[in-house]
Model the fold of this input.
Amino acid sequence: MRYLKLFLPVLLIVVLFVGCGGAPVVEEELIEEPEVVEDTTTVVEPEKPELVLDRIFFDFDKSDIRSDAAEILESNGDMLELYPEVNVVIEGHCCEIGTSEYNMALGERRAKSALDYLSGLGISLDRLSTVSYGEEQPLDASDLERNRRCEFVVK
Done:
């Protein structure tokens, strides 16, 4: 019993200093780093249609834009919006009826009418210019109506 009286206080001291079972176990929660995924998708722009600017025609001795010409000019304007880097020369043409001087002036009025229409659609005037060829460059010498026109030339 004497040993027991000595043993208990020693045991109590050992337990207090050493502890039971050592240090408490702390479970670490593993936090996974989010996986970095590189964006490998590429933005593919839709393919542009081929740049085509159609000619317009005028009535005899007129520079007013006809309804069929207005539709063509709107299509040309849409095309020019797709190609903002493109500049265009609008060429005014006439048939051979009338004097050369008169036809040069009429060709210029026709080109100016087309330019004004495209400008009204939002095409910058910086991209458009005009020239008149009067009767000098007929499209078809046997068809006077086809010579009363404007051509749109990409520069």
Remarks:
- The helical segments are 2-18, 67-82, 100-120.
- The CA atoms of residues 51 and 79 lie 7 Å apart.
- The longest strand covers residues 128-134.
